[in-house]
Amino acid sequence: MLHRGDDMKEFNLYLSNLEKWVEDVLQKLNLEDNHPLNQSIQSYREEIATVRNKNASVDELKNLELKGRKLFKQITGRRIPYGEHQLPPLPYPYDALEPYISKRIMELHHSKHHQSYVDGLNKAEQEIYIKKSSSEIKHWLREQAFNGSGHYLHSIFWKNMTPNSTKEPIKQIKKQIETDFGSWPNFKGTFTEAANSVEGVGWAILFYSPKANRLGIQTIEKHQLFSVSNTLPLLVLDVWEHAYYLQYQTEKGKYIDNWWNVVNWEDVNSRFINASVAG
């Protein structure tokens, strides 16, 4: 049995994350009451409440977690055929992040650079999975890693930003940052140092490790090198020169400092909840 002592804080935090995730899903999907998926979500919510109101066994908690993962896959399981990835639209106008990131940078970064990664990923997947180009498999696997990582990271990056930033972490991600890094300023300082340490082209990333049940910070060279396996990115910062040079030129540090003004902590918090539930 899980006793209401040292385990209680972690137990309640886990259930709170589950409940918040269910609430977010219901709000975003806005399903009809009789929709099968809505009924599954409501049933899962009731199971969470039942577990919260008693001393749950480890097996009961594991079953609840497994059901959550299955439900998550059911909700997010839209399948994209090989070679058919598309450039996602920005969730705001190109000039929405000014004065911190200029309209011209956003136009070029999204419509040209990100599009090139989408095109490169589609080409690589066509060669690997459709044409089955076995004689050049090593080349196309590298292209898949580079362009695929570039596409997926940029897709997170755009949503990680908003013109209506809260300027600092909120809700569950705030609590987790304070738990793992001691304080918001400590985390911000370490992440900023990591971003500034990137040489040439790369990213700084806040990730969640399901295995360790904690957050971590990592820099990535290009889009795919030196990443930590089996972790889920929550907050990503592009520090390739094309992300800032037109506006900041050689002042990468100023770009990084200003970027904090547009971080979408609502999105980061949602990603954290999804990661902690489905990881």
Can you describe this structure in just a few lines?
The protein has ten helices and three strands, in the order αααααααβββααα. It is mostly helical and 279 residues long. Mean pLDDT is 87; it is low at 1-6.
SSE diagram, text form:
Blueprint: H1 6-29, H2 36-52, H3 58-76, H4 103-130, H5 137-159, H6 171-181, H7 184-197, E1 202-209, E2 214-221, E3 232-238, H8 245-248, H9 252-259, H10 265-278
Antiparallel strand pairs: 1-2, 1-3
Helix pairs in contact: 1-2, 1-10, 2-3, 4-5, 6-10
Question: What can you tell me about this protein's structure?
Answer:
With 279 residues, this protein is mainly α. It is built from 10 helices and 3 strands; from the N terminus they run αααααααβββααα. Strands 2-1-3 form a 3-stranded antiparallel beta sheet. Helix 2 packs antiparallel against helix 3.
How many strand segments?
A: 3
Task: Characterize the largest beta sheet: strand count, sense, and whether it forms a barrel.
Answer: 3 strands, antiparallel
Tell me the series of helices and strands, N- to C-terminal: HHHHHHHEEEHHH
Count every helix, treating DSSP H or I runs of 4 or more residues as helices: 10
Estimated share of beta-strand residues: 5-15%
Structural class designation:
mainly alpha
Distance between the termini: 23 Å
Give the C-alpha Rg.
20 Å
Low-pLDDT segments, ≥5 res = 1-6
Mean pLDDT: 87
Shape from CA axes? Answer: globular
Helical percent range? Answer: 55-70%
Give the spatial strand order of the biggest sheet. 2-1-3
